[in-house]
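Project standup — Tuesday

K.O.: blocked on the structure for the chain from last sprint. Re-posting the sequence here as requested.
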Amino acid sequence: MVQAYKTGKVLVQGKEALEFSRNVIEPEILQQATIGYEFLIHPEYFKAHVGIDECGKGDLFGPLVIAAVFVDPQTAKDFIEMGIKDSKRISSTRRLNQFALEIKKKTKYALLSLPPLRYNELYEKKFKNLNLLLAWAHAWVYKKLSLELNDSPRVLCDRFAQPWVLQQSFKRIGADQLLEQKTKAESDPAVAAASILARLTFVEELAKLSQVIGLPLPKGASSKAAQLAKDILLRCGKDTLRKVAKIHFKTIQQNFADRAL
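H.V.: unblocked you, prediction finished:
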């Protein structure tokens, strides 16, 4: 099955999707070969390195999760052949689970999950800025993983702020010369794998918080999420809200400006 969208995106599904893409779409439509030629097009994918990505920074409820994954040439090849990609392009939790199991089998990784209570404490008492908190967390998982590897390989991160923000955090752990930042870094197999581990952990932790509070906590930071936060505050109090929500979000501050949270 082939679905074409107005955006220019084409979705190919079915038993012979790979062959169809290689034999029809690439030569006749794109007029360029990419599938199976990643080693020539992106040789950097196949050099030993660590990829880091996060999940939860734009979600009012739930933790902030940062993951780091190490790949060597063989692991990178395996991940590409498995179809590992940016987790935002994977809608199925079952599929996330399958990929995560394979990632954990094949390589070493590190995770940092900051539940809302800990997140709020770090934000308010130490960083007072999301990008600074994120940069610290990226450096933390890299250091943890490098200790397990007994090595300090190159590290690739998505560029989420001005370069100096991440640079200064990695400088504190003596790894600033190993750091590379670029936009859309999720195309790299190590970063894509990290995004999967981070998203799956976020989804699992959000589900646990939902069970504790007895309400399904939504993803994102919509007006619906803000209204739910207000309901939780009125029904359960600020201590409960701080356990499930990121208090510095504008949707919280604007709605509860008259309350000390």
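K.O.: great, moving the ticket to review. Confidence is low (pLDDT under 50) at residues 20-28, 30-37. The first strand starts at residue 2 and ends at 4.
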